[in-house]
Predict the 3D structure of the following.
Amino acid sequence: MRSWQILFLIISSYLLTSCAVGTVKGYEEKKPQAESYEVTYFSDPKTDYVYKAHISIYGKDFGGIFIAKKINDTLYRAAFTTEFGNKLFDFEITDTSFKVNYILDELNRKIIFNTLKRDFMLLLKKHHSIVQQYEKENSIVYKSKAGKRYNYLFFEKASGTPFKLVNATKSKEKIVIDYSNESYTLARKIVIDHKNIKLKIELNYIQ
């Protein structure tokens, strides 16, 4: 093999490794202490999780009310309406399925729909199979396989509650979800931010 080809492979390997590790930079890899993890946010079936919502997507802004409800052990219902009660979307979501009960025509474009589908399936995903674990002084990260991507779940050691979820390929972060937790089952504020497209979702819990 020519020397320039070898050099290219070495540089490519380094870049892929460094980018992937960047998500957990400063963390030490540990042997996983569990095979899976269940996210506790949105997990109380007696609670209607109601948020004041703002979606900024490809230069368009939508404001209103987001409601998530756990229907049973596997199924969630997620709906978004304007503050006047006009429905923008209504989805039924499990870890492996996605059903549309309604979606506004303006949002029912392939790229927008697929992005919303990925976001809300990620937000309401309950079960994560752990393939790697990382730690530092105050937090733990579980790495989980998600199709062709990976999910990195960041937890506070003291409380055990998630404060961030990163969805990434082997080389790039794609979606970052930041949580400000109110309790073990309730995130007071949620921000879903995309790194490669103009889409941001902000949810603020309504008491």
